[in-house]
Design brief:
- The chain is of the alpha/beta class.
- Helix content is 46%, strand content 15%.
- The chain contains seven helices and five strands, in the order αββααβαβαβαα.
- A five-stranded mixed β-sheet has the order 2-1-3-4-5.
- The longest helix is centred in the N-terminal third of the chain and has 20 residues.
- It is globular, with a radius of gyration of 16 Å.
- The protein binds zinc ion.
């Protein structure tokens, strides 16, 4: 399946909103990743961007932030029938949280560089608990370009040591979705 229950046009629309969030993250010098939560009627419940630097928290990935906002809004941690749109393939931490939140579906744009996160066997038990529909590649080029421009910019800032850059890049590659 290459589209959600909302259809491809809506998927592109929702992903563009997640991309707007990713661009906000970029303004704060965060890795540009955005996420939104949508209910079964196609209403947007929450929008968030990566806030790791702003919150001094490695847990403040866009997905976790969007889920927190949504559950607070709904006063319910169970997000059955909801869909989450993310501009980058989720890392294991976020994938775990998505599964535990009981989302019906996940749509993401760019694949993580390692391309292993969602293939790992360690997630099979979570998948058995909650059969989530996963759709990838929606607005992939826009998201990839945004991420690439972020890392290119970082590379050109001469004040930063190459070591520091490598550390950030490695951290990102490990899945800072
Ligand atoms: Zn993550």
């Amino acid at each position: 399946m290459n589209e959600s229950i909302f259809g491809i046009k809506k998927d592109q629309y929702f992903m563009n909103i997640a991309l707007e969030q990713a661009r906000i993250a970029l303004k704060f010098k965060e890795v540009p990743v955005g996420a939104i939560v949508v209910n079964q009627n196609g209403d947007i419940v929450s929008q968030a961007h990566n806030r790791v630097e702003q919150n001094y928290s490695q847990a403040a990935h866009a997905e976790i932030e969007a889920i927190r906002y949504a559950t607070r809004e709904l006063k319910n941690w169970r997000l059955d029938w909801h869909w989450i749109y993310v501009t980058l393939e989720p890392c294991p931490m976020c994938m775990g949280c998505i599964q535990l939140s009981r989302f019906a579906g996940l749509v993401y744009a760019a694949s993580s560089y390692e391309k292993t996160v969602l293939d790992r066997d360690c997630f099979s038990w979570l998948y058995n608990k909650n059969k989530i529909v996963i759709i990838s590649g929606i607005q992939q080029i826009d998201s990839s370009e945004l991420l690439q421009s972020f890392f290119q910019q970082k590379r050109t800032i001469k004040e930063r040591s190459s070591e520091e850059y490598k550390r950030d890049k490695d951290a990102f590659d490990k899945g800072s979705g």
